[in-house]
Amino acid sequence: MSSPEQERRSGVQLVSALLLLLSLSGCSSMDVLVPNYINALNGTTVTIPCTFTSCYKIDLTKFAMNWTYQETLNNTQEKFMTYDKKKGMQPVPSNRFGERVVFSGNLDKNDLTITLQDVQLEDEGIYNCYVKNPPDRIQGHGIINFNVVTELPPPRDSTIAVAIGASVGGALALLILSMVVVKCLRRHQKQELISEEKLEEEGKLEPEAVAEEGTKLP
């Protein structure tokens, strides 16, 4: 018959074992990491990245992934890259892309990145990266909005910014100088007014002093 102390220790050990099991298996669900937007210049080669995190290492006998394209969210998806258990990552024949899409990632690093060569205006749309890595139960999904532009935005003209800054700085300097001059003039006028008031007071006091002396004479 076990004592209360032994039962307490058994309970602590059971809780510890459960916590250890949870810590080992408590990995978050699969996450697929992709950029939300990509702006590509027409006619260039562009990398479209896709990586994922999983609780488990890749088992190539169970792993599955697909790259798909759709013009808009309402359109059907067109598969153009997939994983084959025997051949690895393989492009799927596509009238849209032809042979312009190649796999440039690394499965050992959970990297499913692709490279799109000679970008065309028709390549604009939504790119989906789907990943399944059993025994993870959840299928990962990354969505990329791919925009194609015909020219890069013009560089910012720093000359205009410098000219505007110089003009603003000059105006501020002129304003400060004007304020200093006005302040000096007001101070000078105030000093002159004080001097005049002193002179007037002295002029008023002199006759009074003479009258006082006159009253003292015999």
Helix content: 25-40%
Counting DSSP H or I runs of 4 or more residues, the number of helices is: 2
What is the overall silhouette? elongated
**Percent of residues in beta strands?**
25-35%
Order of secondary-structure elements: HEEEEEEEEEEEH
Largest sheet: 6 strands, mixed
* Helix/sheet category: alpha+beta
Overall mean pLDDT stands at: 75
Number-wise, the strands total 11
Strand order of the largest sheet: 2-11-10-5-6-7
First CA to last CA: what distance? 139 Å
Radius of gyration: 42 Å
Low-confidence stretches: 7-26, 158-166, 208-218
Describe the protein's architecture and organization:
This protein has 218 residues and is an alpha+beta fold. It has 2 helices and 11 strands. The strands form 3 sheets. Strands 2-11-10-5-6-7 form a 6-stranded mixed sheet, with no helix packed on it. Strands 3-9-8 form a 3-stranded antiparallel sheet, with no helix packed on it. The longest helix has 59 residues.
